[in-house]
Amino acid sequence: MAEISVASRLQGSGAYALELDGIARHFGALVALSGINMRIAAGERRAVLGSNGAGKTTLFNAITGDFLPTAGRIRFFGEDITDLPPHERIRRGLRRTYQISQLFKGLTVLDSIFLACRGVSRRRFSLLRPSINDVNMVQAESILNAVHLESDRDVLVATLSHGQQRQLEIALALAGAPRFILFDEPAAGLSPTERRDLVAILNALPKHIGYIIIEHDLDVALRVSEYVSMMHNGRLFKEGTPQEIEADPEVQEIYLGGKHG
Amino acid sequence: MTALAPTDKPAAQSILEKIGAGNIVVLVLLALYPAVASDFFLTQIGAYSLILGMISLSLMLLAGYGGMVSLAQISVAGIAGYTVAIFGLNNSGVHGFGWPFWIVVPIATLVAAGASALIGVISNRTEGIYTIMITLAIATAFFYFTQQNYSLFNGFPGYTGIRAPEFWGVNWRDPMPFYYLCLGFAVVAYAAVLYGSRSTYGLTVQAVRDNPRRMRALGFNVTAHKVVAYFYAGIIAGLAGVLLVWFNGRISPGTINVSAAINVLIIAVIGGMRHPIGPFLGAVVVVLMQTFAIDIVGAERFNTLIGLFFLVIVFVSPDGLLGLWGRIKPHLAQESLRSGP
Ligand SMILES: Nc1ncnc2c1ncn2[C@@H]1O[C@H](COP(=O)(O)OP(=O)(O)O)[C@@H](O)[C@H]1O
Ligand SMILES: [Mg+2]
């Protein structure tokens, strides 16, 4: 039924950014995901909520190909990408961040973002040093500013604070004209100020860029998404506007517990 | 302060500044070395260290930048050596097509680079200790194969009577020309690695070392970048292999046995794998010890001595002699990593 409500809500809007049909993932006997169906319109911003172990990260891994799903099909802007290797999916405009930062400890901040821009561009095997006027370098500098890391431009990633590493994690996903981004708990471990910055960055993204954000903090989720999906035990069990979800008694019971009670 | 100017990219940098004072001093000293060195010191110490340094440099490129410790680099050098013996001239009465050096050397280098890339493909799915194990297995298998195969590798005796060519009126077998030949190759390889480490491709290799999963999530074909690193390392090891076969005048399974493979690793570890100068440093130290320690402590105790030295270095400074230098002059080491407060 949730299916139908999403579809009707998006009627006439045309293309879907992401379509998931019957995605499942098993780890041995453990069923981490089962029967996930999802349609996300181009430019839509969706929050996914769910308790720890609900399968949210596993769903992201299935979409990007980090770990393939056991069953199901994935379409990205109408194209079936289920059998493509991760880097081919990324080159089509898909991006992600990681719940646990996956960075290049031995590189500088600027070089990391430069590589993120170059990864979906040409000359990935160039034996020349990139000049400061290189188009990907210029892009990297502007992303650097967007995530407020300009003062750490030439610093080794290993020396960044946790908060700065989270900013860089986001910077890497913004590089190279993304069409759709998967944010895996980008606000986890951030200070209130850093959270405000994060919300500002997400809201400042160009309108055509859609995303899914996994977020435990409902307040953050409400401010950056227009629609919410709830996950529990590897299944999607409810979808609705943030207000509907917040008011839903079942959701309050299962997910929020006493917190909002 | 970054608002003022990026400190490591001043607008106009002179050629001298770009190359670096340290590199120029070392190059001048190495160029003047024949003025003071005897023939023995020119070839057995100078040229031999440069050759072993190049083979270890090919390992340093893979291990230091790419995190791929391959023990098969001596095999790659050996493949180039065998190719020179087969396509050039030898006096073993097997093959020896007698093609001119300017065809044979590029062929040998490319065959070696291709073999290295193939090793990269085979070990692609492995990481860390498993890469060491699979490449050691490849090196061992190749050693036994050359020993048993007579149609291509002429088995146990291998090939003898291989000579460096004569051209431009110079006999490159003579000590001083041969030294300069090795110096020229080594300088080109060293400079290429140093420059390339900051190139786009060089950065991708280091990023793959740090986090292959993230590299895939940025759109990079990680496998291709690793295999290409093996190919480039193969070019360096291959060129060194050509020099080695000219240096020895012969090639046989003994040149590429397991202890030779380990020797390359020891040199790289002793010298340090954080900068391409490390392998050459390690090569000089090991060649000096191999040459003179035998006279002092005798052949049996010699390996014990190298082993002890190796242990001391690994315990005192995991980054080799380069790491020791970093400790004596920590501010210098820091400066090279960061650009300002
Ligand atoms: N690589 C893995 N191997 C085995 N089990 C896993 C693996 N990854 C996740 N799981 C299991 O799958 C379930 C969902 O995990 P995850 O997707 O990380 O949850 P969430 O991100 O919602 O907190 C958990 O029970 C977790 O233990
Ligand atoms: Mg998770």
Automatic annotation (TrEMBL), chain B:
Keywords for the protein's UniProt record, in alphabetical order: Cell membrane, Membrane, Transmembrane, Transmembrane helix
Keyword Coiled coil applies: no
Species annotation: Pseudaminobacter soli
Topology of this chain in the membrane: Multi-pass membrane protein
One GO cellular component term noted in the UniProt record for this chain: plasma membrane
One Pfam family this sequence matches: BPD_transp_2
Mitochondrion among keywords: no
Listed name of the protein: Branched-chain amino acid ABC transporter permease
Taxonomic classification: Bacteria, Pseudomonadati, Pseudomonadota, Alphaproteobacteria, Hyphomicrobiales
Annotated localization: Cell membrane
TM stretches of this protein: 19-36, 42-62, 69-89, 101-122, 129-146, 178-197, 218-247, 253-273, 280-299, 305-325
GO MF annotations, alphabetized: branched-chain amino acid transmembrane transporter activity
Source species, domain of life: Bacteria
